[in-house]
Specification:
By secondary structure, the protein is α+β, with helices and mostly antiparallel strands. The chain contains 3 helices and 10 strands. The longest helix has 10 residues.
């Protein structure tokens, strides 16, 4: 399976999660690019919230997470978190962290941006999370998707995908806006 080999190659398993999801999340950006299991994308091409789709089951709610485990001391960075999603209808879910695109530093290796979907085992998720303010850096760092999934008994990821991104001129501009080093 392609997803397994790419997640193994990029140390997603066991570095970030314990098992490879059985399904792939289709991720399409308004810029026209798609996440294709480990392809490299530019920060500019992934700046806007994508559409996402995964195989669904009737009556099941899902949690979607996008995380960057390569952000140094603050890793993982929570780039997107939506819970209580019926089927693939993100607009009907509860957004806890609005989408934030990639902005890795210019120096260093590409960062891994990982999309994961979890089936919520008992319907709607009752959580104690505080939704993050739009455009806020606060609450995004020091996230651990594995710990989040354990805290809410989400089990292993149901679907996944990932892309790589290197820092560039656009990400340097975003980092300055966020008060981060280029």
């Amino acid at each position: 399976m392609l997803l397994k080999s790419v997640m193994d190659k990029h140390n997603v398993v066991p570095g970030v999660i314990d098992t490879v999801p059985k399904n792939i999340i289709k991720v399409h950006y308004p810029s026209g690019v798609d996440v294709n299991v480990g392809n490299e994308l530019t920060p500019l091409s992934v700046k806007d919230e994508p559409t996402v789709q995964w195989p669904t089951e009737k009556g099941v709610y899902y949690t979607l997470v996008m995380t960057d485990p390569d952000a140094g001391a603050r890793a993982e960075i929570k780039h997107w978190l939506v819970v209580n999603i019926p089927a693939n209808d993100l607009s009907a879910g509860e957004t806890l962290a609005e989408y934030r695109g990639s902005a890795p530093p210019a120096a260093g290796a590409p960062h891994r941006y990982i999309f994961l979907v979890y089936k919520q085992p008992s319907g709607r998720l009752n959580h104690s999370e505080t939704p993050l303010a739009p455009n806020s850096r606060e609450g995004r760092g020091y996230f651990k998707v594995r710990e989040f999934a354990n805290k809410y008994n989400l089990g292993e990821p149901y679907a996944g995908n990932l892309y790589l991104a290197k820092g560039d001129e656009y990400s340097a501009q975003i980092r300055v806006q966020l008060g981060l080093p280029k």
